[in-house]
Specification:
The chain is of the alpha/beta class. It is built from 15 helices and twelve strands.
Length: about 325
């Protein structure tokens, strides 16, 4: 456990000093060498995306940057000292968003490393959208990257389970973490059993259009008994940012049994300016799809609207439950 005695506040310093100071480099390297690791603190060995490393167990001041970890950290009772508030989902995180004691560190596109440094974290939970900033983050505090990965053994969903278990180990909340994993596995199993080789269009609402979303929600479909209708077209790995130029007529001609839709537009909407058109309205507005099986049979699954900005264990649990329920009802 860390020394709980108050530490003198450190003045906010310029970004160049954060990144270039030799003192910080010496004091803030990862693992057991960190100057912020209390002497004699219990260590936990984690298998990270950068190899096996040791970190202090039960860190008191945690910066949470990886959005896939947010819901699990909340479930484990961990309140961060810093977070990228721009990446917080629209619902369920007002307590973090409106808490001035939680520093806002911007986003992965425009990280506010000065704010992160001033928050004096003992540990940074990085990775995923912040993976490219790993070296800079390590100069501030030990940084653990246990974010889910497509390259992990067993695939993305399996790595979500590992991430949850390791967060439980890190914070001494193994039982709570095991419950989250059990719920995910139960929902995944139900979705696997409910699907039976159906063809599916994995779609995304992005830029006010419906396009190919397989590069993101293909992770969700990977363990299921479904066939991506675009696989034969060589388009299964295109972007979720509406740049594949997929024509509605192409989907109409392929006529998949089902459609699973991720609403990226709504997921990233911050409540300012004109609200995006919901995915459901965009789908209903496609005249080319009027006679398709997925429209005529109402075989469309709309993922939770915050899926794109969460993507953690809880988001996958909720999505598997939606898929299992929809496919089971259609089979009755």
């Amino acid at each position: 456990m860390y020394d709980s005695r108050p530490r003198p506040a450190r003045p906010l310093i310029a970004l160049g000093a954060v990144l270039g100071s030799a003192a910080l480099l010496a004091a803030c390297s990862s693992g057991t060498d960190s100057g912020r690791t209390a002497a004699g603190a219990e260590q936990v060995t984690l298998t990270t995306n950068l190899g096996e490393k040791q970190f202090p167990k039960n860190p008191e001041r945690v910066a949470a940057l990886d959005n896939t970890s947010f819901a699990t950290l909340k479930a484990l009772g961990v309140k961060p000292v810093a977070a990228p508030k721009e990446l917080l989902p629209a619902t369920g995180y007002d307590d973090w968003r409106n808490d001035d004691s939680i520093a806002d560190v911007g986003s992965h596109r425009e990280p506010k490393l000065e704010e992160l440094n001033a928050a004096e974290p003992d540990l940074i939970i990085g990775g995923y959208r912040f993976a490219e900033q790993q070296d800079e983050l390590e100069k501030i505090a030990p940084t653990v990257d246990i974010s889910p990965s497509d390259e992990a053994g067993g695939g993305y969903v399996a790595s979500l389970k590992t991430q949850t278990e390791q967060l439980g180990e890190l914070f001494g909340k193994e039982k709570q973490a095991a419950k989250i994993v059990a719920e995910l596995e139960s929902a995944e199993k139900a979705a696997i059993e409910a699907t039976d080789g159906e063809t599916v269009f994995l779609a995304v609402a992005s830029g006010g259009k419906i396009d190919n979303g397989a590069s993101r929600i293909g992770r969700l479909a990977e363990p299921l008994n479904l066939r991506n209708v675009l696989s034969a077209e060589g388009q299964e790995e295109t972007s979720v940012h509406n740049d594949s130029g997929l024509a509605p007529e192409t989907i109409a001609e392929l006529n998949p049994d089902w459609m699973i839709v991720m609403d990226r537009d709504t997921g990233v909407f911050k409540g300012e300016g004109e609200a995006p058109t919901p995915a459901k309205s965009l789908v209903q507005g496609q005249d080319a799809w009027e006679k398709t099986t997925f429209v005529s049979e109402n075989q469309i699954v709309y993922l939770p609207t915050d899926f794109y900005v969460t993507e953690g264990a809880q988001a996958y649990t909720a999505s598997f439950e939606l898929i299992a329920e929809a496919f089971a009802e259609a089979a009755e």
